[in-house]
Amino acid sequence: MYYVANIMRSKGDPKIVRSGPRHVPPANRLARSLGWFSIGLGALELFAPRRITRTLGMQGNETLVRAFGLREIFSGIMSLSVDRNAGLWSRVAGDGLDAAALMSAMTRPNPKKHNVALALLMIGGIAMLDYRGAQETARRPQNGRRRLYPDRSGFPKGLAAARDAARKVLSHTKASVS
After folding, report:
1. Is the pTM of this model over 0.70?
2. What is the 3-state secondary structure (H, E, C) of 138-161?
3. Nearest Cα to 121, choosing from 98, 141, 87?
4. What is the pLDDT of residues 135-149, one digit of tens each?
5. What one-character DSSP code corresponds to residue 14?
6. Contact, 36 vs 75, CB < 8 A?
7. HSE-up of 110 (CA within 13 Å, CB side)?
8. Which tens digit of pLDDT belongs to each residue from 78-115?
9. Which of 77, 78, 95 is nearest to 132 (CA)?
10. CA dist 4 to 8, 16, 19, 35, 161, Å?
11. Distance in angstroms (rounded) separating the CA atoms of residues 21 and 28
12. Does the structure show a pLDDT above 60 at 1?
C-alpha cells in the first residue's frame, strides 16, 4: 500500500519506506467480522429465500425471509460504519426476531425440525457474539469516570477574546452599513 502512497507524493515530501503495523482493537475487529457476515447472510436471505424456507420446512415465508435479509444487510452496514455499536445492537435484536420466527416452525408439524433446531443453535451462538461485540464497542468513560470539562469554553483563545472579536465584527458591520 505504501507504494501507491509514494506515487501521490509531491516532490520534496518524504517517501514512505514501510508502513507500520495497524492496531485495530479486538472489539472493532469483531464488529467488522460480524458486519461482513451480516451482509453475506442478508444477501443469501434476499436472493435465495425459497431455498432457505425449503431447508427449514417453512415454505410460504419467502417474503419474511427477504425482509430479514434486508434487515441483516442494513445491520451489517451499520456494524461497518462509525456507529458500529448501533449496528451490533440491531443485530442482537434481529437475532431475537430470527429465533422467534424459527420457534414458530418448531411448534407445527414440520418434517425438518432438526434443521430448525440446528439453525436455532447457530443463532444462539451468533447472538452471544453479537451481544459481546455490542458490549465491547459501547463507549465507556476512561478510568470508570465520566469526563467533565466545566472550565472549557470551546473557544481556543477564551470566551472574552471571542466576545471582543464579535464586537469588532459587529461594529465594523454597523459602520459600513451607515
Report:
1. no
2. CCCCHHHCCCCCCCCCCCCCCHHH
3. 98
4. 998 876 556 666 666
5. P
6. no
7. 20
8. 999 888 999 999 999 999 999 999 999 888 788 899 99
9. 95
10. 7, 10, 12, 28, 45
11. 16
12. no
